[in-house]
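BUG: 3D viewer hangs when loading the predicted structure for this chain

Environment: internal workstation, default settings.
Expected: structure renders.
Actual: progress bar stalls at 90%.

Input used:
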Amino acid sequence: MHSHRAEGGSPERTGLDIRTCADARELSERAAAATVETIADAVTRHGRCSLVLSGGNTPRALYALLASTYRDHIPWSQVHAFWGDERYVSSDDSASNYRMARESLLDQVPLPFQNIHPMPTHLPSPEAAAHDYERTLRAEAGHHIPPFDLILLGMGEDGHTASLFPRSPALHETTRWVVAVSVPAEPATRLTLTLPAIATAARIFVLVSGTGKTGALAHVLSPGADPDDYPAAGLRSASGLVTWWVDRDAASGLRDRFP
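Structure tokens produced before the viewer hung:
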């Protein structure tokens, strides 16, 4: 595959920054090291790092590395943690993205409690929770330009990212940063950052692993891909650098698209 740019290289005509890794383990290790570098750079530049965490299975190994190998290499007191999306379940539910991040990362590191900003899923309505979290984001991160230093994302087999699913009305949001959505997955009620919010980040890492993602990844990275059909294609509107961390299985469909 010749379309990716290697570390230190320049973008090729596709303009895509694709880091192809041998397997999910190498993907996690390289993305974790890059996360540590990005946090350090943000703290050096403006004294803090706003880090947006992802749910799903792919980032779990990355979180475990941040909590072990890299635990003492990160200035945790200057990191603020946010979430890209959340299932509308209690914070101790097994489906909670917050619970997954807490168990695999937050409970293991000296990140101050007041620096942890989970999406509120205890409010009576998801819509009220979305407005509440948007206020939190704008108050905590909004006075920094860019407001988010690094957003971690995954991608589903249907091309969804965060909880932005194909043909979701949320894909057409132009001003709000957080919306409540109903998705074709369980649990269905969720909160998610919108593309306008994600597009504000200085850097975005998208972690994509496994043969199940091959077709969607090829579509998402194709020129002219429609975010309505493959929402992760909407990341091309981001103003910062989007890096795609993909393992060899997920990348296997790219050779035909990017010869």
